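Notes from hallway chat w/ T.B., transcribed later so I don't forget. T.B. wanted the structure written out for a chain they're using in a teaching module, and asked if we could keep both sequence and structure tokens in one place. Agreed to drop them here.
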Amino acid sequence: IFQFLKQLGIHPDWQFVDVYGMEPELLSMVPRPVCAVLLLFPITEKYETFRTEEEERIKAKGQDVKSSVYFMKQTINNACGTIGLIHAIANNRDKMNFETNSSLKKFLEDSLSMTPEERAKYLETYEAIRVTHESSAHEGQTEAPSIDEKVDLHFIALVNVGGHLYELDGRKPFPINHGETNDDSFLEDAIEVCKKFMERDPEELRFNAIALSAA
């Protein structure tokens, strides 16, 4: 992922670090501040059932989503790692230092005014990011499977926008608002959301959290 960020033209003053466990002493090892958490998890029948129910519940009850949340749909198979990264960085773009010719910076500027569906279409045509995704996939990293391989693992991003914790998943129709958060408690709040994913599938072991932390 570090290579990936470098290739996309992001200065290394933020870095992705592994979250080794959900206990307070392990979370205390993660450098602060943390501005995003990526969760890698398995798509199982239990999860798909929950996802359908959650979508119907939110459609019925409604939820508050700030218009400043940057959200995009996922239309490219297995690009969830790439889309997770874009979600993490797009919603923290005021904190990032981009190189002048950064392909990601240009993508974000071009797509800010687009709908989530238009952003997905734009990514399909946006060679610079797709090629970077594919080249990092071929380096044999677990984070980025090649585009056509069938994978049942999925990435989502958790971010703080305007004091609310949002789950951003390109397979869902909209961001999910998980309630209030702040810069100090964001990592703990995001990990609570990750724990819910794990509790829904207690037999599963394939969960992995990565924090975007100040270097």
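Follow-up for T.B.: The longest helix spans residues 45-61. Might be a good example for the class.
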